[in-house]
Amino acid sequence: IVSENNYIPERPYSSILILSIQTKEEIKEFNEDFYNRNVKDVFSHIRELDFRKNLESAFQQSLKVNENFPMVERSTNLFKPFKDYDFNSFLKKYNEMGGTALLVVNRKDAWQTRRLSSEYGEYHIPNYLYFCYLIDKDDLSRIVWSGKVIAKGAPFDYEFLNSYVSGKITRDLRKNKYV
């Protein structure tokens, strides 16, 4: 993991919304323009829903120190598929859940590595590049922490990759007192 601490909070964030997206863009600030270009339609992508649910679940499990802290909500639970959420609706639901921070997990790139095996023949290993951003609720233009992880996995096992990524990110967030 490569990470950057932009702002250390006075105390760890107690309530986090995990939002998984897939875009080539980097977040400079989480504003209405970025939301409309990169987030709004993610709730309509049924093709990626299982992957998003698994990824967000992996983060939810690794972020929790105990059953009640921090409170971690998944966007896949909060925002229903095929419903149109404009930026203000998104913010309203986020505020209603009591979020103190937004963790945006961006699967920025994906590729496969070709392998040959005498036992299995040719197969491909999935690889993912994630950019993650922790954004303070009180100032969505302020990215307090960012990190980059490359995950290389086993064929057909995105669950392993998601657990690997969430574990790496969580350890860095804990080490730097964000959660």
Describe this structure in words.
- The protein has 179 residues and is of the alpha/beta class.
- 30% of the residues lie in helices and 32% in strands.
- The chain has helices spanning 32-38, 49-63, 75-78, 87-96, 158-175, and strands at residues 2-5, 15-21, 71-74, 101-117, 121-136, 143-152.
- The chain has a six-stranded mixed beta sheet with strand order 1-6-5-4-2-3.
- It is globular, with a radius of gyration of 16 Å.
- The two termini are 17 Å apart.
- The model has no long low-confidence stretch (mean pLDDT 89).
Would you kindly provide a brief summary of this structure?
With about 180 residues, the chain is of the alpha/beta class. It has 5 helices and 6 strands. A 6-stranded mixed sheet has the order 1-6-5-4-2-3.
Number of strand elements: 6
The run of helices and strands is EEHHEHHEEEH
Instruction: Tell me, rounded to a whole number, the average pLDDT.
Output: 89
Q: C-alpha Rg, in Å?
A: 16 Å
Intertermini distance: 17 Å
Strand order of the largest sheet: 1-6-5-4-2-3
Uncertain stretches of 5 or more adjacent residues: none
Strand content: 25-35%
Helix content bin: 25-40%
Supply the helix-strand structural class.
alpha/beta
Summarize the biggest pleated sheet: 6 strands, mixed
Shape: globular
* DSSP helical segment count: 5
